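chain below, 253 aa
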Amino acid sequence: MPNDRIQAAALTLFMEEESVSSVFVVDDRGAYGSGLRDMFVELAGPAGIEVAGTRSAADVNQVYAAATAATRSGADALLFTGADLEVALDLFHAVHRSDHFMKLFGGDGLALDGFLTALGDLELDTYVTSPALPAGNYARSGRAFFRTFRQRHGEAAEAMAVFGYEAGRVVIDSIRAAVRDDIATDPIAELRRGARAAFFETSERASPLGSYSIDAWGDTTLTFYGAYRVEGGRLVLGRSIDVPPSLLRRSAS
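prediction:
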């Protein structure tokens, strides 16, 4: 999957497209939420989006204070970077009760049916990013994966299945590359070292997700994220955002 720096950049571009000039950020104190918050805050300024404030809400008892701070900040939008669905839903409702015009953004931690189907009237103001795209938005090899999955299993694959499929493939290929004689007799320590080295040597690999390499931190070089609205409890793709390297270089400088 594209890493969360890519997602943070995609969120800034999504907000630009939706005419957001200032945003209040709330996380849930989890590793995912705190990390995405920090990366978004780092990227927002260079992208021309003011961060009007930040707050943490680790449980529903802290939602009211976070929602009050968000609506009093005068920001155009709220961004929840966490993955706690109960906190997210309560927060979105609390903010919406005070400010019907505030746009509600979330990362892929909210791209789950349990959250989406519970939004109700909040759908109109909710915006979500996710790396998973509809089958027709992938290259030919990606579309072939979804088509073959349906043929073999008699039902459509979940949107994230293509990522699991490619993760399995690259791991298996890395193990195969590490085998010197016979996988049943090669020393396990050497197999582990060899498989790890082969994985990090992955370069310009053709896959259903498109061509990618593995960088020094073990991340893929994939740079796309889907920008979604919500309709009828389901994500509806607005557009696929391919984050330009210039945005990432600018944030790192």
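The chain has a mean pLDDT of 94. The first helix runs from residue 4 to 17.
thats it, cya
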